[in-house]
Amino acid sequence: MVQITEDKPKKGFDFAAFEEKINVAMASVTVKDKAVFSRQLAMMFSSGIALMKAIALLGDQSENAKMKNALKKIRVDIETGVPLSVAMTKFSDIFDDLYCAMVESGEIGGVLDMVLNRLATSLEKSAKMENEIKSASAYPKAVGSIAIIVFFAMTTFLLPTFATIFEEMGAELPFITVLLLGISEFSRTPAKMGPLIVALWLFIVAFKAFYKTPVGRVTVDRAMLYIPVIGELIKLIAVARFCNTFAMLTSAGVPMLQCFEIVGRTAGNQVIANAITNAKDEVQQGGSLTEAFEREKIFPVMAISMMRIGEETGELDKMLAKVGEFYEDEVEQAIKGITSTLEPIMMVFIAALVGSILMSMYLPMFAVFDKLG
């Protein structure tokens, strides 16, 4: 009797699936990506295209692997009857609490396209602000990095050569030359540089671990608020973000207490988030929003005065939107001011580095010339 066996195809390694997972893990969805997605989805939905089909189309045309993967899974959830807002909560790294809450309010009120357009506008403003901050910090980062690299290159390779010549000629080395030679020797000695690099690495790891604790987060974020210029900019950004987000949520019909919770989680600074939480507790007990913020002493006086007018007139969302626009302009002007201030500071910094190296090389030469004379 012959036994017939069925040959089962051996399942090999799926390189395509592995590559897709790698692409998804390495990709990141920017604020601009979310703004474009929101605007396109709103346009499709308002044009009468079914939500599931619109999500499928946007997923197919997306060039971002992370967004494409998320939209593919969201479409599957929608097919099984899961609301869009609930499906999005599974991808919190792309769609945060604010986004999901706004989508949920749009679904409940039947105005999803209008809500998505508001989200797109808000995200476009956030992207613009982020670009302005990055542009302002790009110049000092680049110039500072180049200046430090040049400084260490000259002190490590060029200065020791001149120092040897001066010593052979019997020139007395001035203090600045001795100091820079000490830095040069230190940077060229692995036994000395190694422990310093390890110590710096341990400090960074310890600082990150400390910042992840509740006490560390509050301590560092409070210190950030007292840094000259930077602290004021953080406050302005927080005020603009709070006002715009709160106005958008309340106008979309999200309950006020839920608005507080969402805005608190998106504050960006734990001290400000705690102030928002305290204000929420006071409002929950029947207190006034403006009085609560006035006691916290985080928001500017003008912002609180405008909030009070909004509360008294029953148009808090409209007033907050105006305050948010005003402080967005303030943030833009503050960033421009910081940029214009940093440029001369960086020039002085570079001049000081280059000048110190030139002085360390020329002063001994003058001493040699005096001896020869």
- Residues in helices, as a percent range: over 70%
Q: Please mark out the parts with pLDDT under 50 across 5 or more consecutive residues, or reply none.
A: none
- Summing up helix and strand content along with how strands pair, one would put the structural category as mainly alpha
Any idea of the CATH class of the largest domain? Mainly Alpha
Number of domains: 2
For the record, give the distance between the C-alpha atoms at the N and C termini, rounded to a whole number. Answer: 116 Å
- How many individual β-strands? 0
- Report the radius of gyration as a whole number of Å: 30 Å
* Quaternary structure: single chain
Listing every helix as H and every strand as E from the N terminus to the C terminus, the arrangement reads HHHHHHHHHHHHHHHH
CATH hierarchy: architecture of the largest domain: Up-down Bundle
CATH topology of the largest domain: Receptor-associated Protein
Percent in strands? under 5%
Question: How would you describe the shape?
Answer: elongated
Largest sheet descriptor? none
Number of continuous helical runs: 16
Average pLDDT for all residues: 81
